[in-house]
Structure prediction request, 399 residues.
Amino acid sequence: MYRVSTFIRHFAHALLLGALIATIWVNLSPASYYDVMERRLFPLPLPAGLISDHVVVTLITLTSDALMALFFFLLGKELWEANMLERGALHGRRGALPFLATLGAIAGAVLVWLLVSALIETAEEAAFGTGWAVPVGGDAVLSYVIGRHVFGKGSPALHLLLLIAIGADLAGLLALTLVAPLDPARLVWLALPLGAVLAVWLMFGRHARARSERERQEARHLWPYIIAGLASWVGVTAAGLPGALGLLPVIPAIPHARRAFGLFAEAEELLHDPLNRIAHMVVKPLVAVLFLFGLTRGGIDLRAFAPTTITVLAAFWIGKPLGLMLGVTLARRLSGLPLPADLAMADIVRIAALMGLGFTVPLVALETALPGGAMAEAARLGLALSLLIGPLLIVTHRR
Prediction:
């Protein structure tokens, strides 16, 4: 088993610390908390055609739409390498089981959300299917950190857990594009990320394997890919899509290593290809970003319990684990592949239970997928309660 970089644990600690401070603050002095979080930081000196009239820069929007794009860039980079590189965990037939397990977990969560919501939801603003995108994603960071205590830090089960959790997280972000209120006229802005990706690939990225030393050195410069990333983020955001998705389109255009070393592998810290160098640049700032995300999105109103809270818990604690188990069963029967080496069905059951954790990506989804107000706060409480599965798994595993 390869060594996973320690920064994953730093991410988890920063996220939980920010959420803890926010929860204490919002329950002791909610007015001051929301005054700080929703205060307009500065005006946007941009043409009206670039941004919507209702868009303002607050600490919440700055963190969720801009800074968190760096975090999802890191997740996207790992999943891209797992798919495309030699010995990647999702390369070829090896990807069948993680893919179907992820698909099953997502389908199970959405189906249980729709069923339970239709049976018990009482919010006047809720229509059938409202909020279905919330349980699609989960929390790769917290799942991994708790998984280390459940499986042990050298277990191969952690690799499969990361694959499924990262896949679900990115699927959760992409699901927001289906529920976001879009203005068709603004979709023309998507030409900007497309043009930026093509331009940086043709001018720089494709020369990484060129025969000329000069062209190879030019392809290793970081500034063209950083500019392309900024252009991509502007285009995605201006089109009305979640800004957290803004950096994902540019990942395929950035030269990468020749082979994969594993998700968040410590060995990647020694690599000097442009994709890994950019990843190294954002790791330390992301500790502060995840603290801010926990502070701005993780404030839990402990009095917000409502039917939506039960819907969230049912989707994460029942739908995702059962869906994942069904996906693994289908993968084994359809592909004929055995479980990964040194894994037993008991490990798959624990992975399924760990997928019942939902926090980071579902918190991003709340503003877009739910009407807001009491319903969103009830869902936020449900997401916080879903984390209780972690200590429960640790205790039961030790016993």
